Amino acid sequence: MKTLSLTLAALLATTSLAACGRKAEAPATPAAPAPAATPAPASNAMAGMDMAPADKMAKGVGVVKAIDMAAGTITLDHEAIPQAGWPAMTMGFKIAPALLDGVAIGDHVAFDLKLHDGAGEVTAISKP
């Protein structure tokens, strides 16, 4: 009975609108989303420059904790390195074995790092 009453009410409303000369409104359809803005083309002012954006250089100071000549690594207990965003810590780095001549465990050293993908490679090392 309820379904019949609702159907009759809908029919009556449609008929009443037609009798008044109005058309029943179609349900609103959502508007198509606006196209995304196209970014402006990048400038080629730096085209041809030999730069790797992920690589940066940093300097640090610390104490040598371990040396592995065969693996080409050095472990340093270093102070904070602001250029890398690193706090003071002990960590291992790649290093060319030739740079290790004259460096021993316990030495206080100053070093240069090439930073790439969150890791560093010692490119120079000296005792201050």
UniProtKB/TrEMBL annotation:
Pfam families: CusF_Ec
UniProt keyword Transferase, yes or no: no
InterPro entries: CusF_Ec (IPR021647), CusF_sf (IPR042230)
Keywords for this protein: Signal
Keyword S-adenosyl-L-methionine attached: no
Classification via PROSITE patterns: PROKAR_LIPOPROTEIN (PS51257)
Species name: Caulobacter vibrioides (Caulobacter crescentus)
Signal sequence segment: 1-18
Name assigned to this protein: Copper-binding protein
